[in-house]
Amino acid sequence: MGREHSEVEALLGPLYAAVGSREGWTPFLERLCAATGSHAGTVAVFDAGGGGSLPAYVGAGPDVARLYEGSYAIENPWRSSAGLPGAVRISDDLIPWRDLRDTPFYRGFLRPLDLAHGVGVVGTVAGGRTPSLTVLRDHRTGVYQGRELALLERLAPHWVNASGLWARVDALERPAPDIRSA
Description:
By secondary structure, the protein is of the alpha+beta class. The protein has helices at about 1-20, 25-35, 60-70, 90-95, 95-100, 105-110, 145-175, and strands spanning about 40-45, 50-60, 90, 115-120, 130-135.
């Protein structure tokens, strides 16, 4: 427990510093990926209408976010099982890798990136949007378990808090409606 506790503490500063800054997510995601043996990490946001975006990611270039948002967010078989805020969702529990391989999401998006397994942590739902913190890795490295899952479970309540703050900051940064046009 001591190691996991210190790993979570080392992630808290970068996590809360990221709130309100798109660029701030990168250092946090890089540290999280290093701590969990992940090849990629994302902050994804899913909306009630079925769309999704990747406002932050590490492990791939900007073309990956455009590809995901334009073609694969709707195909993501993991997104339909988000769960309650703070839920830690293991991709292989949602759809086994042997079944995932047959999906357009895997064939067109994950396989070219050499990614096969993931864990997502559901954030605070606000305004019809559900944020998810996700780490991913290749099939050779295998399914997330043990120490990595324990770390993500300890981090989950902090992600819920940070994503809730992020939603509030985002709402404050949006321009106010012009009452003259109402």
